[in-house]
Design brief:
mainly alpha; 21 helices; 0% strand
């Protein structure tokens, strides 16, 4: 019958959507809604609103995402379908927060939360918790956001809902990063990516990679940050997904700045800015602070004319051109003069040995140099890292996974 055909089309469309195959899903969605409208079936329209809001999110069209989600919520409310209602509400909240419309997002949650909780629909509580988490982190309230995301993630895990696990773990990763809890952020990003890879969902895989890039850069590991950012490019470019590219370009700009490649940093930051403005994405408060500090750092080093020239060049790039530019820049920079990325292979080996408790004489013996030369290497290391002595060096190196017990091979 018509209902069975519509349900089959929607089920198949949902499978394609979870796997980020929206091109294959769209004809099925349209056929299902056509059948539903001929029968004046509002359930079909509720599903249609949810499906189109999910597709708009992948396409980085947040205005369309809002419109489709609101259409789906209205229909779902009429037919009493709590799951589709909750899914549409979550998509609406994400779109509103990413457009900087926090008041509208929180108003929508407050309006519908009680109704959805009382309906006791499957996954309703988890979806609402995700919505609350997004609003809270967008407002800068990570103390409210993190428990909400953790509760939602726990619920999705218990239900074995991989798609929910993927999206919520990535949300938790972002929240934990904003809170400065980088170990939780890394674990959450990895969990989200694992679930996303199982589903073959490219936006989530790319989002996870760039999240890990941000964590690595915050940990001072520029090489890992750059590698993760480039790993994010492939799934995002293949899928034509632009919104995570704003984060990729920004973290690559930050890494370029750390490497003192200032014109490159300015171009990449400008390209990230242009793309963010083009799709109407507003940074969260802490993101904006980090971004503005990075731009100020680059501008401080480059004289006004050089900064303006590099910024103008970056802002003129389309997203495809920006990706191509970022890819060409890979591996072509000089070693920076300060920071962990400035250490030579010999200096890194000195750090490892010093961290294990070797004396200057023992370091010299291991590396076939005099104790005096080992001491000079250590003084250069302290200056590059702005570190006061062996104890501070050992603590920081251990945190980065260098060193180990005295005399133990790494």
């Amino acid at each position: 019958g018509f209902a069975e055909m519509r349900n089959s089309l929607q089920s198949l469309a949902s499978t394609f959507m979870v796997q980020d195959e929206h091109g294959d899903a769209r004809p099925l969605i349209d056929e299902a809604i056509a059948i539903g409208r001929r029968r004046r079936n509002r359930y079909s329209e509720a599903y249609h609103g949810f499906a189109l809001s999910a597709a708009a999110w992948t396409a980085s069209d947040f205005r369309a995402m809002v419109a489709a989600a609101e259409e789906g919520m209205a229909a779902a409310s009429e037919v009493g379908e709590p799951l589709l209602h909750a899914c549409c509400l979550t998509n609406l909240v994400i779109a509103r927060t990413w457009r900087g419309q926090m008041a509208e997002a929180r108003a929508a949650l407050e309006r519908w939360s009680e109704h959805l909780v009382s309906s006791k629909g499957v996954l309703g509580a988890e979806m609402l918790a995700v919505g609350h988490a997004w609003v809270a982190v967008a407002e800068g309230n990570v103390a409210e956001a993190q428990p909400a995301a953790e509760a939602a993630l726990s619920g999705f895990r218990a239900l074995g809902h991989r798609y929910g696990v993927a999206g919520t773990a990535l949300c938790l990763g972002r929240i934990a990063f904003e809170a400065g809890d980088r170990s939780t952020a890394e674990a959450a990003y990895r969990e989200g990516m694992e679930a996303a890879r199982h589903l073959r969902h490219r936006p989530y895989v790319g989002w996870g990679e760039v999240g890990l890039a941000m964590v690595a850069r915050a940990n001072g590991d520029g090489e890992e940050a750059e590698a993760r950012a480039y790993a994010a490019l492939e799934p995002l470019v293949q899928g034509g997904i632009r919104w995570p590219l704003t984060f990729v370009l920004q973290v690559l700009g930050e890494v370029a700045g750390d490497a003192e490649s200032w014109p490159e940093a300015a171009r990449l930051l400008a390209a990230a800015t242009r793309l963010r403005e083009e799709i109407g994405m507003v940074p969260f408060p802490s993101e904006r602070d980090r971004y503005e500090a990075e731009v100020a750092r680059v501008h401080q080093v480059l004289v006004d004319e050089a900064f303006e020239a590099a910024w103008t060049e970056g802002a003129a790039l389309s997203w495809e051109e920006a990706v191509a530019y970022a890819s060409r820049a890979r591996g072509k920079r000089q070693r920076p003069s300060t920071g962990w990325g400035s250490l030579t292979p010999t200096e890194l080996e000195v750090v490892r040995l010093a961290t294990r408790g070797f004396t200057n004489a023992e370091i010299g013996k291991q590396l076939f140099m005099s104790a005096g030369t080992a001491k000079v290497h250590l003084s250069h290391i302290y200056a590059k890292l702005d570190i006061g002595g062996r104890a501070e060096l050992a603590a920081e190196a251990t945190r980065r996974g260098l060193g180990g017990p005295h005399g133990q091979a790494q």
